[in-house]
Design a protein that fits this description.
Blueprint lengths: L2 E2 L5 E4 L5 E6 L5 E6 L9 E2 L13 E5 L4 E5 L34 E5 L26 H5 L6 E3 L3 E6 L13 H19 L6 E8 L11 E7 L4 H12 L4 H10 L4 E4 L3 E4 L8 E7 L11 H20 L7 E6 L13 E6 L1 E3 L2 E2 L4 H6 L8 H19 L1
Antiparallel strand pairs: 1-5, 2-3, 3-4, 4-8, 6-7, 6-9, 8-10, 10-12, 11-12, 11-16, 13-14, 14-15, 15-17, 16-17, 18-19
Helix pairs in contact: 2-5, 5-7
Length: 394
């Protein structure tokens, strides 16, 4: 494999000493390397010399007229790779025997998903993406109800590789690496928010087979939606029905409760008053911030070790790693940015060492939840687990 400094490699210095190196894969998908401060990697990156077929057509969306939700129908995702071994890991650096998605060794790498739920088409031809037919025509168009309504699922889905290692999670990374990932998420949030037709950007990590993870490689994802998601729409409705500073009121309320599990200068982690899941914790900035792109260097610097402490506490609750979904809720791109506050929502169905909460009749069909663990008990258990991890590291 030829290694050289490609003229297509675009280098930018970001905050925290992170260096961004952007290029493309063999089929035109974006690939971006984010180098740790003080990285041992050189500036060169290998060219993706694979011969790849055409990218799949952009999926379609169908409107559920009873709820107003848009359902993406993405048949191209049916044949995704399932739990491959290290010699066939599609997120590992390429080797002669493994023609993976990332041509070079890396610290953190982000690339467009080969089997996306949204995209690659956008609402107009920019950045190499084809224009979409039957595209969404704004939020009013998407809010309208009617039978048989469809739209093209424009947008973008990206994979965020936290490490070149075959196994692990965000919580197994170093503070330096966690800081690089946070910088990458902030940078991608800003970039994706500028793409035509994007209404909301959602970074997240799925961890564990019980959640449905198909790759053991430490990674997360970013979805850039052509609509405001149902969860966020409900949140905006609640803000409209209460007060513009609802998130600050929630934070003030939680900070005086027994549900706080971690607190720093810029962030507080707490089990919410009405937690649904056996394990649920929110991590919220102390000032109003709409998304990760708007956080300061000081906030990102504190977030890296605080987030790792939280995740390692989650894993210390039991003898085996805990499955979870780590969801970064961000304000929509075009509405609610002065009121909807960035926050992490980490949830796990694990309600015991060998027990999981399954969403059955009431929760799955009626969206009516019943919690088996009180939020106060959940917070106490998590605080004790965090204390055990801190005692080990001291």
């Amino acid at each position: 494999m030829n290694t050289h400094h490609s003229p297509e490699l675009r280098t930018t210095e970001l905050g925290g000493g992170v260096v961004k190196r952007a290029t493309t894969l063999a089929d035109g998908r974006d690939l971006i390397y984010y180098d740790d401060p003080g990285t041992t990697l050189g500036p060169e990156r290998s060219v993706d010399a694979r011969t790849l077929g055409p990218r799949p057509d952009t999926a379609s969306m169908r409107l559920d007229v009873l709820t107003g939700d848009w359902i993406t129908v993405a048949a191209n995702r049916q044949n995704r790779v399932m739990m491959p071994g290290a010699d066939a890991d599609p997120l590992a650096p390429q080797t002669p025997g493994n023609p993976s998605e990332v041509p070079s060794n890396y610290d953190v790498a982000v690339f467009e998903n080969r089997s996306p739920a949204f995209g690659p088409a956008l609402t107009e031809a920019t950045g190499g993406a084809p224009a979409a037919s039957n595209r969404p025509r704004g939020l009013d168009d998407l809010d309208a109800l009617g039978l048989g309504r469809t739209r093209t699922a424009v947008g973008r889905c990206e994979v965020v590789c936290f490490s070149p290692d075959h196994s692990g999670s965000f919580g197994t990374q170093s503070v330096t690496r966690a800081r690089t990932v946070i910088e990458a998420l902030a940078d991608r949030t800003a970039a994706l928010s500028q793409l035509p037709g994007i209404q909301q950007v959602f970074p997240f990590e799925n961890r564990g087979e019980a959640i449905g993870v198909t790759l053991p490689h430490p990674h997360g994802q970013i979805y850039a939606y052509p609509y405001v998601t149902p969860r966020t729409a409900r949140t905006l409705e609640s803000i409209d029905r209460t007060a513009p500073d609802l998130f600050q009121r929630i934070l003030d309320h939680e900070q005086t409760s027994e549900r706080v599990v971690l607190q720093g200068e810029h962030w507080t982690a707490f089990v919410p008053f009405a937690a649904r899941w056996p394990l649920e914790v929110h991590l919220m900035p102390h000032r109003h911030v709409p998304d990760l792109a708007e956080t300061t260097a000081a906030e990102r610097d504190e977030l890296a070790p605080l987030y790792l402490t939280l995740l390692r506490g989650v894993d210390a609750m039991y003898d085996t790693p805990t499955p979870y979904i780590a969801a970064w809720h961000q304000a929509p791109v075009n509405i609610g940015r002065d009121t909807a506050r960035l926050h992490l929502q980490l949830t796990s169905p694990r309600r015991g060492a060998d027990k999981l909460k399954f969403l059955a009749g009431s929760e799955a069909a009626m969206w009516a939840w019943a919690a088996e663990v009180t939020p106060e008990q959940g917070a106490e258990r998590l605080r004790e687990a965090i204390a055990r991890t801190e005692a080990v590291t001291q």
